[in-house]
Structures are given as C-alpha cells and as structure tokens.
Fold this protein.
Amino acid sequence: MTRFRCIAERCEDTCCGGLRVGVSEASVQRIHETLRAAGAPEPIEEFSIPFPEGAPSERVLLRMRPDGHCVFFSAERNCSLHRDHGEAVLPDVCSTFPRTLWKQDGRLEVSGSLACPEAVRLLLLAEDAVEPVPVTPGLVTRPEAARPAPGLPGDPYVLHAGAVRDALREFLLPRGHPLSSRLSALARWAFRMDALFRGPNPLPEGEEEIGALLRAELQSGGAAMAVAQVPREPLEPWEEGGPRVLRLLTQLKDLSGVTRSERFARFVQGSRMALGVTGEEAQDGSGAWRLYTVRRAGLEAHHGPRLEQYFHHYLENYLLRHPHTEAFGLQAYVYRLSVRLARVRLTLVAHPEVSSGCARETLDQAAVECFQVLSRNVDLAPDFLALPREGLTGDRALCLQETLAWARFS
C-alpha cells in the first residue's frame, strides 16, 4: 500500500458503485458545511439516508443513484466531492479506501482491500508487494479512523492474537508443499484448537491459566510436520469435484442476477461457458470437472511459480485484512478462507482468456480480474460464507469435512 495511487477515471471499476456506503453523521455535516461555504449546489436529492441501526461510524448511508453510483460520482468517472473540495471533506471510508486500518497490539496495521483493481495489481504482480514496512507518517491520511481489532475482551484468541496469527502464518505461508496440503493441515489444527477453547468442556479458571494452556498448544502446533503428513491426492478421480464445481458456479450465477454489475455477470457467464455449463438442465458436473482438471494441470505446468505468487501474496494480505478474531473460532475462520480460495482458483482456471499457452501478461490480467471482481461482488455474500450446520453436536465435524473438501481446490 506504500505504492498505491488512485488511477481515478482510468480504473475499470469504481469505488462505490453498487455498494452500501455507511458514514458518520459528522461526515455528512462536514459535507453540508463545505458545500455551503463554497457556494456549491448540493445534489438535487438529499445525498444521505439515516441508518440509526448502524455502528457510530455508519449511522448514515450515502444515497446511490438508480445506476448504482454515488450521487457525487461525476460524468468524468471520478468523485466530484474530492475533485472540487479536496480530500479533507471526504468521509473516513472514502478517504482511506482501499486501505484497511486495524489497531492491533498498540500499533497501526495497514492492508489492502481487493475490491480495488489497482490495489489488486500491486498486491499480486510485484514480487516484493507483501514485504512488511513501518507505517510512516503520511502513508495513511487518517490513522485515527483505524478500528480496534475485533473480538470479545478476555477471549484467549484475542488476548494472544499475535501468537495465534503467527501460528496461522506457519501453516499457510511456507512454500514447498501444495496450498491444499497446508490448508488441510491448518483445518485439522483449528478443529483441535476450537475443541479446547470453544468446546463444551470447561476451561481452567483465570486468564493466566487459560493463557498458559493456549501458549502450550501453540508451541506444540508442529505446523511443518503436520503439513508434510497430509497425503497428496490427485484431483482427477475426486467424485465430489463435479458437484462442487456446479455448486460454486450456480451460486455465482444466482448472485450475478441480483447485483447490478454487468461486468460481474459477464465474468460469471465466461467461467460457466469455459467449463461447459451453459444451460439450466440438470448436470452431474463430471464434464465440468474434467475440463477444470485438464485446464488446471496445463496452467500449473506452464505458469506454476506465477500462480503460487498470486496466492502467497493474497494470503499475506488476508491475514492482515481479516483478523482471525472476526470469526467466532479458528475453524470458522479457516472454513471461510478455504471457500474464498476455492472460488478464486475455480474462476481463474476457468477464465476464458486463460490457457496453458497464454502469455504471462494475459494471465496477470485475468488474475487481477478474478481476485477483484470476486472480492467486490461475492466476499460478503451469505450463501458462500455461511457455516455448514447439522444439529448442535455435528457442526464442528461437518465444518471440518467441508473445509477439507474446499481445500482440495486450493
């Protein structure tokens, strides 16, 4: 994010189009005062909508036009408020985007939102994109807008958030084993951790005793050994592959029907056609799975290191942008990550412009589109991120089973 510069009207997308943008009441007042002081006309329609049930920083929604864009979005494809009155008048969310700001262990952490195409380009394509650097003055215009890291006070995962994240990194980031193996080992570790710290058995009394138990479990994680022990199973004979491809493609198609993004609709249709899923008739998915595995094998044979870079950088950013404490437990966190990874892998392999013989520049462009379009249109969709449920006692076992299945896509 040290290199990010908004490319404004040259961007293939827009920051606010089709989104619900929540801002504070103070932000709305500042906009009113700035427009009045400048003698500038306000939008014909009131630009804000009260949203009293929102958080304090989101008690008002910016009004969107029928085309899905903010009322301040200009015909030149930029923000007229920023253009005419400067950055200072913008609400916090508009000023900081695509940066995500968290206060973690007394320090400010900055990561990037993949809903922004330019942020995705910088993240995926530059070899040194995820090298950590200090947050220097001027890098973030409004450090005071940073949110406290999520989680409940006293929760051991919150009290020892840094150590837990280090453990997640030990599983996910070292290279040398397929991402599917790393994710599978992490899923089993998360299942075991949640059985201790989210299970029915009582924990020791006192934060110190609970902390000692957590630290002991973290130190005995053995991530490298656990990853090495995961068997490498070929994709081709996997019977669940076809139904899962159809499940993802159907969910994407359904979602494209309720969004107002023609770009997203074309993206979804291209993925479906590339895998031979063209109609509404019932299919078992076997043909789509064969096409997927053939395309993926060819892509990995010719562009393996580049693909690895995309996903490695994605994971580095993910662990900063999505703290594990935003989920109820580690198992839920890993499940949602595995679904997101499966979704990106599927659509990248199925991208119409991508083939084993395509140029690296073509692959890069397709990767940027996949990560960005999915982040913008799908990332918060409940159909994708809802945890599997099967009775009060079967939730965790079923969640582990589903996570391991989605991990095979990765």
User: Anything to note?
Assistant: The chain is about 50% helix and 5% strand. The first strand starts at residue 22 and ends at 23.
